[in-house]
Design a protein that fits this description.
The protein is an alpha+beta fold. It folds into three domains: 107 residues, Beta-Lactamase (2-Layer Sandwich), CATH 3.30.450; 82 residues; 127 residues, Heat Shock Protein 90. Helices cover 48% and strands 21% of the residues. The strands form two sheets. The protein has a five-stranded antiparallel beta sheet with strand order 2-1-5-4-3, with helices on both faces. Bound molecules: adenosine-5'-triphosphate and magnesium ion. The site of adenosine-5'-triphosphate (ATP) has 16 residues, from helix 8 and helix 9.
Length: 339
């Protein structure tokens, strides 16, 4: 066999040809060369020895379309002809039903015919598909969460404003005192709504955590707790910590979940939010005086505590929860200072 110009590369010796072949085979899963009559002159499908289901040595010298009778009429045949007739490189992806596999195929014209390289991309493609699906699912969940937040927060306040404004207008001439009380409720609802919107903006625009800071974001959450839930909230946050934006996001989300849990489960009257900057680590503490619970218990189908642990662990930090039924709850999140 004339060992020249395989796959567009000029190869002057059998040794060079073997070296080049070894290289091609190391990054592809299959390699076939065809002459101008479509006869197989070289074939290595070792990584996919079942590509043909036939022993490869018996295939040398046979016509491609006899060996793979399923190929004629497919995109594979069209692309082989395109490369051979127009002397151009082609590459495409094709699904091969006998393997239930997807291949990336690259075809290069050579002086002897064409060289075809196959790479099995089934796993890569299905991983990419799964990642896309997970991203779409995450976006949907986040939208649903924000819709719930809007419904439970701003929507309720606007509704309260409408009700109180109507009551105020009706009482304006006959019951001026009631009208004034209604107006005061309008002002209260409007203030709560503003606090809710400010807090929501931090969630919708994460860069605000960078520009305005973690301390401001936590303060806004505290305002919402006071305004919407009538909780006494003690805040002791100190200076804006000098940590990465990832750490700020993690701490904000952890605090937010701990505070959500307080409003959903704790029946507390007091909440303390503390940020302590130590030399080696940063401590964020969220404490309530509510009904407490057993943090060791399994909570199937509930993800808040689990995601707090995961967020802290992703930055080499930890979450510890001290709680006992009837005794309130303290969630402490520690992140190493290097972040
Ligand atoms: N501060 C708290 N006070 C009392 N019970 C709490 C408190 N925080 C958590 N819990 C209990 O721990 C359970 C698990 O909390 P977790 O945040 O994982 O789930 P969830 O809040 O019920 O649901 P979600 O997945 O929406 O967060 C809660 O269902 C609740 O019983
Ligand atoms: Mg929760």
């Amino acid at each position: 066999m004339q060992l020249q110009d395989k796959g567009g590369i000029s190869l002057s010796s059998a040794e060079e040809w073997q070296q080049a072949t070894a290289i091609f085979e190391s990054f592809t899963d299959g390699f076939i060369t065809l002459d101008h009559e479509w006869c197989i002159t070289y074939l290595n499908l070792q990584k996919h020895s079942n590509v043909s289901g036939k022993a490869t040595e018996h295939l040398l010298g046979r016509r491609m379309w006899d060996v793979f009778p399923e190929a004629p009429g497919t995109i594979f045949e069209q692309q082989c002809r395109e490369a051979a007739e127009k002397r151009v490189n082609v590459s495409f992806e094709v699904y091969y039903p006998p393997h239930t596999a997807r291949y990336e195929v690259r075809i290069y014209p050579s002086s002897e015919g064409i060289s075809i390289y196959f790479t099995d991309i089934t796993v890569r493609k299905s991983n990419a598909y799964l990642v896309k699906q997970a991203q779409a699912q995450a976006i949907l969940q986040e939208r649903q969460r924000l819709a719930r937040e809007l419904h439970d927060s701003v929507y309720q306040e606007l509704y309260g404003i409408c009700l109180s404004a109507n009551a105020g207008r009706e009482a304006l001439e006959t019951e001026p005192a009631q009208s004034i009380a209604a107006l005061e409720r309008v002002i209260l609802h409007a203030n709560v709504g503003l606090a809710e919107i400010r807090a929501l903006l931090f969630e919708l625009r994460p860069e605000l955590l960078e520009t305005e800071g973690l301390v401001a974001a936590l303060n806004k959450r505290a305002e919402v707790l006071r305004a919407r839930y009538n909780l006494a909230v003690d805040v002791n946050l100190g200076e804006e910590p000098d940590i990465s934006i990832e750490s700020k996001h993690a701490l904000f989300r952890i605090a937010q979940e701990a505070l959500h849990n307080i409003t959903k489960h704790a029946h507390a009257s007091n909440v303390t939010l503390r940020l302590l900057q130590e030399k080696q680590e940063l401590l964020l503490e969220v404490r309530d005086n509510g009904k407490g619970f057993d943090p060791a218990g399994p909570f199937p189908g509930h993800f808040g505590l689990q995601s707090m642990h995961e967020r802290a662990a992703s930055l080499d930090g930890t979450i510890s929860i001290e709680s006992a039924p009837g005794n309130g709850t303290t969630v402490s999140s520690r992140l190493p200072r290097i972040f």
